[in-house]
Specification:
The complex is a heterodimer of chains A (323) and B (293).
Chain A: H1 2-9, H2 20-65, H3 68-73, E1 77-78, E2 91-92, H4 95-126, H5 129-143, H6 147-166, H7 175-199, H8 203-211, H9 216-227, H10 229-245, H11 248-253, H12 271-280, H13 288-322
Antiparallel strand pairs in A: 1-2
Chain B: H1 3-48, H2 54-57, H3 71-102, H4 107-120, H5 124-138, H6 145-169, H7 173-181, H8 186-215, H9 218-223, H10 243-251, H11 256-292
Helix pairs in contact in B: 1-11, 3-6, 3-8, 3-10, 4-6, 5-6, 6-8, 7-8, 8-11, 10-11
Classes of the chains: A mainly alpha (323), B mainly alpha (293).
């Protein structure tokens, strides 16, 4: 910081006394900058309000035509997007889309939570510094792979070369291949946030346990993990929220058939994939079919927001204990 | 040896064996994530490397897979990055400076801070819905590259803000105090001392935010970026496509030739992304090394 220190003193000309006008100008300029910077920060509040207003306006319009009870309890999702005569009677029950979303999220959690947690334990408790310096950037690269690329991988490799080989009856679009790849996507999130939490556990707790003769496993599972538990759970919840909101992998690999099923080998449709399907199609803006994406989007927004708020509350509590 | 001692030794052996087994399990789990990444890279290279050529990069999309290329998508991506950066960087860094250097510790600041953390977790497709309603329809920007960039700027704003805040927080207070002590105003302290010191950290955050924006697809589907674009945008109000949209389009077609194109497009996209990420990692390591001194 040597250079900065010299600059801080500055050339002598800058320290000359200022007249009243100059002082007032300076004051005005400072206030203007303060205002502009505040507006920048306020953009984030504006974004949230705009999201809520947009979703609410069209969702209220939607519920003017479809009863909210039907939306939450009907077991069929037949939005009748074609709208042509002779089509099926429209049904607007969110449950098939919800079950598709939850099926993928649950499958992803089964893959990512154990793998992510064990990776975090390895990085925080076992790996030497040099190895951590290699593994962490690799996991960051995995975290940075675009979801459309992961979708390609899910469809052309996981579904065709793994799932269909193991279960030949399966359709090419199935929930399992999407769930596995969504799981791979959220591994880095679980591992890095859980590792942060475990690294924040004070050394003295570990040393106390070692002094009592505990093995490395006992220190990791009975001391470090319980001490970091709220941070770890926060990472789990955040990862599940990310899995629920994931769009491209499920659009490409999970299918487009709203299907109330718990069989991971079935073709399904998630809430996000439905929204994509409508916006790719020819549905007229302002029609009931088009309004469905806002109602589905609202459901998605409320679910992910709830999970994020819970996760942040846990992280906040965790930080209060250790920082 | 007494019976108790023998029992202790047996339990100790078991405990140590379990510990070794657990360590192996941890190593296995760590390798799984890395193996998945390796598998993905190998699979995509195998499928697409034969198609990557100058012609592929410099041709417009075509109904004939062997003649199709990514020119429109590449230029669309460059346009969108430029516009996204020009919105997200000033607003994001400005917001971070406000929160770290100006904001009073009151309820409004806490609300803004919590809100930014929440926005970072909003699914990207919800930003797409917002972009469709706000930029495409309410502001009548149509399905232009400008509407796409504004949507993308809102999406990456939390990333820019959070990374910039961390960089600003890492600047030692002594720098600020020294500047105040010689009579600098708050803005002089921020613009001449704090921001230059935090610059590498902020730059890292910006690169990571832009690499997120380059790979996003869902919000652009929402605002209606085109799937078939045989032209490059010539102004911010032109219609456009981007690399991930082109990849999505090719992946969702049944013909294997198009799938090969998708893999080739992915290779180009990943090379761009890995270059950006590597730059960010190098910058961060340098920054951390200097901060430790």
């Amino acid at each position: 910081m040597g250079v900065t220190d010299i600059e801080a003193v500055g050339p002598a000309s800058r320290i000359r006394p200022r007249g009243p006008l100059e002082a007032r100008l300076r004051h005005g300029r400072e206030a203007a900058i303060h205002g502009v910077l505040f507006l920048c920060a306020f953009v984030s509040i504006f974004t949230t309000l705009a999201i809520i207003a947009t979703l609410l306006e069209e969702t209220i319009g939607f519920f003017g035509e479809v009863s909210i009870i039907d939306f939450l309890t009907d077991t069929k999702w037949i939005p009748g997007l074609g709208g042509g005569p002779g089509g099926l009677e429209p049904h607007f029950g969110i449950l098939p889309l919800l079950s598709g979303t939850l099926l993928v999220a649950a499958g992803a959690a089964v893959v990512a939570l154990p793998v992510g947690l064990l990776t975090a334990i390895f990085l925080s408790e076992y790996a030497p510094e040099w190895l951590r310096g290699i593994v962490k950037p690799i996991l960051e690269v995995l975290a940075g792979i675009p979801t459309v690329v992961l979708g390609f991988f899910a469809l052309t490799f996981v579904s065709e070369d793994i799932i269909k080989v193991l279960f030949p009856e399966t359709k090419i679009f199935n929930a399992a291949s999407a769930a596995i790849v969504v799981g791979i996507m959220i591994i880095p999130m679980v591992s890095s946030l859980s590792e942060d939490a475990m690294s924040a556990v004070p050394r003295s707790l570990r040393e106390g346990a070692y002094a009592l003769g505990a093995t490395k496993l006992e220190v990791a599972l009975r001391v470090v993990v319980p001490a970091a538990l709220s941070g770890i759970v926060a990472s789990f919840i955040l990862a599940i929220s990310r899995a629920i909101g994931e769009t491209m992998i499920v659009t490409l690999a999970a299918g487009a058939t709203p299907n109330l099923t718990w069989n991971p080998l079935d073709s399904i449709q998630t809430m996000t994939a439905y929204i994509v399907q409508v916006s790719l199609g020819e549905t007229a803006q302002g029609s009931l079919g088009f309004r469905t994406i806002f109602a589905v989007g609202m459901t998605l927004f409320v679910m992910t927001l709830t999970l994020n708020v819970i996760s942040q509350y846990l992280l906040h509590r965790f930080r209060e204990v250790y920082e | 040896m007494t019976a108790a001692e023998a029992g202790f030794r047996r339990r100790l052996f078991l405990r140590k064996a379990t510990a070794v087994g657990f360590a192996l399990l941890c190593i296995l789990a760590t390798s799984l994530g890395i193996a998945a990444l390796a598998l993905l890279l190998v699979d995509i290279t195998r499928e697409g490397v034969g198609r990557v050529s100058w012609d592929f990069i410099n041709s417009f999309p075509s109904r004939k897979p062997e003649q199709a290329g990514i020119k429109a998508a590449l230029w669309g991506t460059i346009w969108m990055m430029g516009l996204t950066a020009s919105f997200a960087i000033p607003i994001g860094v400005g917001a971070a400076v406000y929160l770290e250097e100006y904001a009073p510790r009151n309820w409004l600041t806490r609300v803004i801070q919590t809100n930014i953390a929440n926005l970072a977790g909003v699914p990207s497709i919800v930003y797409g819905i917002l972009g469709l309603a706000l930029f495409v329809r309410a502001m009548s920007l149509e399905r232009s590259v400008l509407a796409g960039s504004l949507t993308m700027a809102l999406l990456v704003l939390p990333i820019v803000i959070i990374a910039s805040q961390e960089a600003l927080r890492a600047v030692p207070n002594s720098v600020r105090e020294a500047a105040y002590a010689v009579g600098a105003s708050r803005w002089q302290v921020v613009s001449r001392q704090v921001l230059p010191a935090a610059f590498p950290g902020i730059l890292t955050g910006i690169i990571l935010a832009l690499s997120r924006a380059i790979g996003e697809t869902a919000p652009l589907i929402m605002i209606g970026a085109l799937l078939f674009v045989p032209f490059t945008p010539s102004g911010p109000l032109d219609r456009f496509t981007v690399l991930p949209m082109q990849i999505f389009n090719w992946t969702s077609r049944p013909q294997p030739e198009f799938r090969e194109n998708a893999a080739a497009g992915i290779i180009v996209l990943l090379i761009v992304l890995l270059t950006m990420n590597a730059t960010a990692v190098i910058l961060r390591n340098r920054f951390q090394a200097r901060a430790r001194q």
